[in-house]
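#structure-requests
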Amino acid sequence: MKAIFCSLILAASWTFAASPTDGIYLIVRADDIGSSHAANLACIESYQQGIARSVEVMVPCPWFLEAAAMLRDNPGYDVGVHLTLTSEWSNVKWRPLTCAPSLVDSNGYFYPKAKIWSDENSHDAFYDARPDIEQVEAELRAQIEMALKHIAQVSHLSSHMGVTGLDDELRALEKRLAEEYDLDIDLSGLGATYGRWGSDTQDDAATREQKLIDMLEAQQNGLTVIIEHPGLDTPEMRGHGHPGYEHVAAHRHGVTKAFTSEKVKQVIQKRNIQLISYKQAQELFGK
């Protein structure tokens, strides 16, 4: 089944229509490769044995170099630089690549959250700590350049926890860097919509798989993006979590199971859903 599925998708890649409205196109994006060994293994499995076609790499994280080596071994896996300015887990942390005192807490790690929306006077999250925009730019440049140094197939930028979308200045900075490094793929400009397949953190793996199948069965013509975080239920990943999201390993293992599910792949074949990457979307539908 795996060989047949890969062959069908490869054959379909030569027959794409000129418009996303002429068929069902799906970008499955796996986030956070580089953040842990378990995430690295799961993100690669989601590509080699599953439906993920784009993956977002977190450069400041401890397992980046392993992720980069794995991605070099899988040159067809489209890569985005997942611009990282936060470190969300309670017991697993990462720091900036640059000297950036306005971007870190008293321990020298990135802040755990992007913004404390409920308290405008808070200073314990990235945005609320009044980051220096020049330090932000230097850090993002360092992350982009490190990714380009180690990974040939980087095609785009994205934002971990949406940090670069917090205000107009940050959005403009990301846009400028994307253009400068030739990594400017704006899926919204290609008519993409973002699908939610109900991957609730409390669902078991079977429920998560069925919800993805239900979404695919209902999919209509157009370009849709789904974003999730593959992982494995290992002791390492069980050490990840924060208040309100304690069962990270079980949830993300279920994501991997759904992304590699034979039932899911059968629905994709049956409905002639075209699995594509960010780069392919730009090539097919960009102007």
